[in-house]
User: Fold these one by one.
Assistant:
Number 1:
Amino acid sequence: MSMTAAARVSEGMRGLKGKNVLVTGGTSGIGQAIAVRFAEYGANVAINYLTTPDEATETGDKVHACLKQVQQQGVRDVLVQGDVSKEDDVVRMFEDAVDQLGGIDVLINNAGIQVSKPSHELSAADFDKVLGVNLRGSFLCAREAIKRFLDAGTPGSIINISSVHQLIPKPNYVGYSASKGGMQNLTRTLALEYAGNNIRVNAIGPGATVTPINRAWIDDPVKREMVTAHIPMARAGTSDEMAGVTCFLASDDAAYITGQTIFVDGGLTLFADFREPWSSE
């Protein structure tokens, strides 16, 4: 049974109440779940959307409903527009978030896209587009967050939403796989560079996750079996499960963790095809 929003605030997660959190790509799926979960723990949340405020309406409604449910005073949520692949947008987005929340303590680099096409047919423009959002965008947001952490002289936390595909190759998605492989070393490099400033940089690597964007295979028994057959726990994860680990990494309970990727994947990275004992002898 999942914990209610009121219980989450009552139980708390150390160090999150009152923190200012920016979530990129926060209008649906994992990003939306992360935004709502942080709000349930008493954090102020800036939700990034891409084009129009209407894109963020559902997330905004959920966060407002959460705040009303837990009756947590002083918790705010704001909407900030920006395309993370565009430097000017990122700079303005951070300025908007800081102006409205009064500062920034946690960045969640969640915005991401993918293009499905055989690699020999993939255009340079599509490859660049995926890396522009997933990797370059994550760098730009991390850079702006780190600047503000350093200027304020306060601790900071960055969590990159990567993928099991930073380790597992994904044919027909070479741009996505390359971007997530790059995100792994982006995480480790920034973590090492700024550990002395009490700035922690970590990542989560979601496996197959139930989100609105992949209802096609979730609702198709044949396709669902093709996916879950490779997962030792025999099911896809939920956005809320990804959000829980993300909040943990931002909390004081993870204060000595940096440069790590936690795979939230039901064992997908354990090479499920080798579950049965076998021998080459």
Number 2:
Amino acid sequence: MAKLSILDLVRVRQGSDIRGALHEARDFARHAEALGFTRYWVAEHHNMPGIGSAATSVVIGHIAAGTSTIRLGAGGIMLPNHSPLVIAEQFGTLEALFPGRIDLGLGRAPGTDQVTWQALRRDPMASERFPQDVMELYMLLGPLRAGQRVQAVPGTDSRVPLWILGSSLFGAQLAGELGLPYAFASHFAPASLLPALELYRARFRPSPVLDKPYAMVGVNIIAADSDAHAKYLATTQQMAVADLFRGARSLSKPPIDDIDSYWTASERGQARNFYERAIIGGPETVEAGMAALIAETQADELMIVTDVFDFDARCHSAELISQAHRR
């Protein structure tokens, strides 16, 4: 059976603040742990007032300190923004503090806009070196080699598991050639899901990490006691998507009765592509949607985004998703 995990955007809600978002992330991870989810990831985003996970490794440490068994990780670290040595040291530190519980997902996008990209002092050619940086990071997290003059302290021989993340065919090909697990971001780029998985499996070469492909699929799932209530809860994320199209950086908003009163016809059309793989509904709808997605993709794991404004409703959504998965 496919495993089930959670990707948390660490949304900052209207009426709350960054501190509240970080504490809710920790509490939600504890709830996911009790429900039996396999892992809980947060992602690197910058200059976004509504997302509190920019200092990704710090956030992982905060959540890890509030949980005991669930795996924690980055989904992902945007490696071209950083030195591989610094990331090896950060995640080596996390592994030293929380042994056997840390994952490191790697992406090559900036995780922000052009202006912020410049503020990060990002090298324009950094994305082109992504495969080389991944291999450098892999070596820094591996055993110390004879004659190695630079080592990650901590980090060396920590063997923190690396994942390649992607929303296009580039990451799929790289993950396959390196023999690493692959996570596809169909929660925001669903169009290339099946071609990317096909390419990953076709190009896969066994490695010391994996002897066969391991594919994770990111998907938006919002569950409630009825289809109608789930669709109502989903308007929070739909407003966030509309704001993204508008270039606005707003806090997470409470759900509304009529999403068409918020977005334009053009935005609704754009969002239709965004939500192509989303599963939104009551228990039966969610169960059927998850079963169909797993059957179609043969995913080894689903990484769930359940973006709900109210914390208790979000916890209930996770409960219903977990129950549907067990059935």
Number 3:
Amino acid sequence: MNDAAQNAANAATHNADTKSELEARSTNRSRTPLSEEFLAFIGNQWDDAPATITDPDAAVTIRAAASAAQGRRKKVAERFAGQLVVIHAGGHKQRSNDTDYRYRPHSAFAHLTGWGTATVPDSVLVIDARDAGVHGDQSHRDASCTLFFRPTAGHGTDEFFANPSIGEFWVGNRPNLHEVSELLNISTRDLAEFETFIDGADDVIDLTFEEVAEFVSELRLIKDDFEIGEMRKAVAASVKGFENVVRALPTAAATNKGERVVETAFYSAARIHGNDLGYDTIAASGEHACILHWIVNDGPTRPGDLILVDAGVEVDSLYTADVTRTLPVNGRFSPAQREVYEAVLEAADAAFAVAKPGIKFREIHAAAMAVIARHTAAWGLLPVTAEESLNPEKQFHRRFMVHGTSHHLGLDVHDCAQARREMYLDAELEPGMVFTIEPGLYFHANDQLAPVAFRGVGVRIEDDVLVTETGVENLTAALPRTVDEIEKWITALQC
């Protein structure tokens, strides 16, 4: 062996030894007894574990979601007849060292099972459509579907008490196979059998296949009655969150990191009235409102400034709202703030006015941009007329609003994101679609083109809408939108 090869071998041995040593150190905290006598002792004299779903309302919601999911699985089977479609829920995501983020299953898995927040991590849905259509009209045949997951271990195993990731002593009991099968009306099997089940199959497809990702994303473009009901729940919980925000503004104004006070006020509503936040809250006061995804939220909330709050509650079915309101910290808009705010409101109202079945999704944005172009031109901010700026090759008004006006909403805050362009931007609106309308204007403090009175002012108004047979319903109508309504609302809540 030459010197280079010997050095490489030595390095490999060293690395292996180091890895083993580091892995051993991960047990430094462990004091778990594992003697045979202890294993026998801890495994005896236990009552049966209680049901994992103890809230009757939660069980009703899951069963309703599962019922809707059956039809969706059938559509997947029809589209991918002759193949084995595998949808992974996904596992825990590491935050740091041995701490994980709060678990949330993949949206496609949630949509096709209805399991929601009760999902056991690492579960796998298999839609076996290999025999679908063999005997003629497959629309009259259900695919064979199986849900694989890791059930609760027996009391006689060390996993029961010694595994901090999945042990009952650490994370509570998981449901058994029968319980989930009854709850979701689907066949269930132990996750330990999954690899054997698909071993050797050459017709397996999953979400890494573009056609699968597109199809399951496009399945969510039009919401069914269950989904619309869940969206209403998410919006109602979000309204409570914004009421919390308004009540917290005086405390926020007296705190160095007032944005954190606002963020926390909304978060408490998300956890009490829903499952979690649908996304990181934007609590952007003063010039931070011009930073579109400001989630640091460590700034002060000064009287005289506006605070832009973009937040949404995710409910237990994992559907989320997405709402923005821009509020005066001291309860009153200044003349310049009012001028910018009312321009944005006019743009939002223009988008509402055109939104109805039959128009293309992109027309909503065009309607809002026509108003933004007209106002920015009138303020002398454009090198051309508003009409010229609307030319696709110019778009100078977009300096002050670089984002889009609308996106689909549902299980994901930017729902249906893998849908084809012709099914999204170029598609016609249909009843059952749920999306946002959210124009804005942002004048950065260092923007030399902006009027001095506007610098540091950022305004966005975002509502969640449902397409009906004749137009759209504003699901977030319970939150005030006009300057006068907002000022009265703040006064009333802070009394």
Number 4:
Amino acid sequence: MNKYAGKIQRNETSPHVRYDGHASGLIFDPRQEGVPLDVLGFGMYRLGPEFMTRQTHEKEVVLVPQEGEFEVEVNGKRFGGARSGGPFAARLGKSNASALYIPCDARFGIRGKGETAFFEAPALRASPAFYMPPDEVTVVSRGEWIWRRDVINLISPKNASSNLAVGETYNPPGLWSGTPIHRHDRDEPSSGESDHEEVYYHRFGLKQGPDDQFGAYGVQLLMDGKGLSKAYIIGDKSAFAIPGGCHPVVASPVSELLYLWGLAGRGSEPAMRDIPEFAYLKRFEEIFKQIEEGQTIRVVTVSALEHLAVQHALTQEQKALLTVMLREKGFDIR
């Protein structure tokens, strides 16, 4: 992160690219000057009836269809599927995502209709090709209240890859991801943190109309607590490179947001360390569940609130914030 933080803050390089929907190939190439990444590549394939072929060499690749139909041949073995209607076609709480892991030293070809995103990174070992079909994908709800989101894990070292970890996150309108704020900048497994670069590829459920000035939007933050503090207005097909630091994102109230994410590092399993300043929000999650479970009368007494604050080791400032949140959730504090 130190390599790029100053350049990003001074606008000498930008982590934000809006994909035009026409090009095919890498959007973020870590070999290129001006791309704030060292190991992780991200791009898009525009599919047609003829096979596009490539050799992976020392890299592993993960393909994630965005919409349309696809057929992939990896070292003579064929895989196929579809993502009809795009990433928002699935019912709430469900996913129509799929992903194909392609190992290093492989030759593959891809054809079909629509768009397929891909991540690539140096492989740490040879592994077999692996396909995650939509009917095996699970959706997990994370967080609570205004930072509740759905996380879809697709490919990781736990099921297929040696380096890449790839998935999707769904934000309902107005809600946050990356909360509590966390980072993965240092290879320190003992402290629960790994050194992983990341890329987000944002999609919005509401498409821009011909007379719209702004359309669907969100805000992507990038900050490191040392001087880097930037905010970016993101739209549909915004790609965002994250060399490190904290990177929360929020959907605007006018559209749902789904972003495809990929991480790559240099050997450790992905591990996120919550910033201590905001880690108490996980205690808030426990409190929300504790008082809402089986609750029909939305009243919290002052003494009960004080007991919760002691039970969860909240400071006076944190208790005051909890009180504001409970009132906003419709609880009467008395």
